[in-house]
Design brief:
The protein is of the alpha+beta class. It has two domains: 104 residues, Immunoglobulin-like (Sandwich); 162 residues, C8orf32 fold (Roll), CATH 3.10.620.30. The chain has five helices and 19 strands. The protein starts with a strand and ends with a strand. This is Transglutaminase family protein.
Amino acid sequence: MRIRHRTTYRYLAPMAFSTHRLLLRPRDGFAVHVRRCDLRISPAATVNWAEDALGNAVATASFSAMADTLVVESEVELDLFAPPWPVFNIASSATRYPFAYEPDDWRDLGAMTRTDSATDDVAAWARGFVAGPDTDSLSLLRDINFGIARGFAYEAREPEGTQAAHETLALGRGSCRDFAVLFAEAVRSLGFAARLVSGYFRDRSVGLGPLRSTHAWAEVFLPGGGWIPFDPTNATMGGYDLVPVAIGRDMDRIMPVSGSYIGPVDAYLGLTVEIFMTD
């Protein structure tokens, strides 16, 4: 599969640009193999690649020229291997909820277990899915995932930013990134380690072609099963048709393109995002 991702910013007049942080190269792993990743930027920029603390491939673009239009375009060719019906070999110590992570796992998981924005309302909502003192862990996570997909209205939101978990819970609606944050904060409040993921979703109901936007979901760490993807927007579990690009604790750290320009606030005219998938 090939993915072309083009982001265009427009301004009233030529602007100077700060260094931009780009998260556009998918993460290699068991489910995804990246064959190539090409990056094109206008105006011309000096690009340096590095891995961040979580192993995301980060391109840092530095600009010397001014322009009234900034275009960042990536083209990726990759293979997907995730099965449609995955089997997760959860360790016996974690098959039933509640359970405790091993001390070594707990240290490694660190901030992924901490909840900052989950209010009492979110925690109470999450506890409502616990069937009893001996609940199946995977079923609990699946029920919360399905609970968001079935109980909340999806809306595509173009403005930047993400709703806090309690806002999505109160509103009863949100975008994919809002649902991912609600899911992560809900399961963290129950003691699970969760991280957020940005990337792409291959929607087989519409086939290959143009996409409206990038996609976001969450992953939960279960001993033996590893990091298991949960997509509350599509009510799915597992990595089938998901292309992870970046992982992080917070959504604002895994945006595909982030940076700023130097000039008047009202000089910014807006942006367009175009994503196209082909075989």
